[in-house]
Amino acid sequence: MAGRSLSSVGPAVAEPTEGTAAAPAPKPAPRRTRRGSRAERLAPLVLVAPAVLVIVVLRLWPLVLGINFSFTGDGERNGTAVGLDNYLTLLDDPLFQTALRNVGLLVLLLPIAVAIPGLLATFVYLKVPGHRVYRGVYFFPAVLSPVIVAAIFNLLLAFDGPLNRLLGTVGLGPVDWLGDPDVTIFAVVGVHVWATFGMALVVFLAGFSTLDPSLLDAARVDGATLAQTIRHVIVPGLSRTIQFVFVTTMIGMLTSMFGLLYVMTGGGPEGSTYLPEYYIWIKQGQMNQPALASAASTALFLIMLLVGLAQIGVLRRTAGKED
Fold first, then answer.
1. How many domains does the chain have?
2. Looking at the domain assignment, is residue 110 inside a domain?
3. What is the pLDDT of residues 272-308, one digit of tens each?
4. Distances in Å between the alpha carbon of 302 and those of 37, 63, 84, 143?
5. Is residue 73 part of a domain?
6. Residue 3 domain-assigned?
7. Which of 36, 145, 205, 256 could form a disulfide with 252 if both were Cys (CB 3.0 to 4.6 A apart)?
8. Which residues form the domain of 141?
9. pLDDT in tens, 19-36
10. 27 within some domain
11. Minimal CA–CA distance to 127: which of 46, 48, 50, 216?
């Protein structure tokens, strides 16, 4: 009776037999201590701190000093607060006005400067015949010094140079590429685009690696043309990459053309190729007006900031409409 009552209490627990090891009891999950969780929160900050320190010391602090210096005077008024006098002087300077007009021209030409590497990267990604050779050829100008590029194109674009001789063979008159105020800025911008689009092409190719190949296959199956594929598949899929290339290309146009301007035109003819960075160098390096140059640098920073934000806003709105 007692044995029956014991057996009816519940299922019998099998006792380990000889030679059979008992299963180890599961260990409780380790608890995160307050010290460990704090270390996990601080680890990203410690890793980012060196880069933030470099940016603050080498970028932001000089920027603040430059902005502060732009409100002081030059010459006899060196170190004296002059308020907005330097900025008013900039607005009355015809050369600075020309530089601002050229900035507006660069903004208008920016879509072309971005579309060229974008289309070439598309052809390379789609593996047109010879795409491996084209990739190397397209990137080659990006490794050349701006001074070397300017010297080469000074020979090619000379009034009696090879380009005008080629135009003469097809019945077109010679063009004064580097002497006509209405033409020279376009020639310099074209040379800059040729010399730098290789980097943008690499960025586009990196963006293509994130694009879903099945979307391209679906477009091909549906009979979409190349233009339709680019508009409805590639552009929406690379919207972030396009935003990045737009901003970096604009910054490059405003801050990386000094070498070309110095060697090819020297700001001429008649000051028609002045850009803010060249104007800054003239005021600082030749006319010894560092405060006025600081004001021009601050104006250039504000121009890049406003143009960059406007571009990002327009591109995001366009991407939203595509979606």
1. 1
2. yes
3. 999 999 999 999 888 889 999 999 999 999 988 888 8
4. 42, 12, 15, 30
5. no
6. no
7. 256
8. 84-322
9. 555 555 555 555 555 666
10. no
11. 216
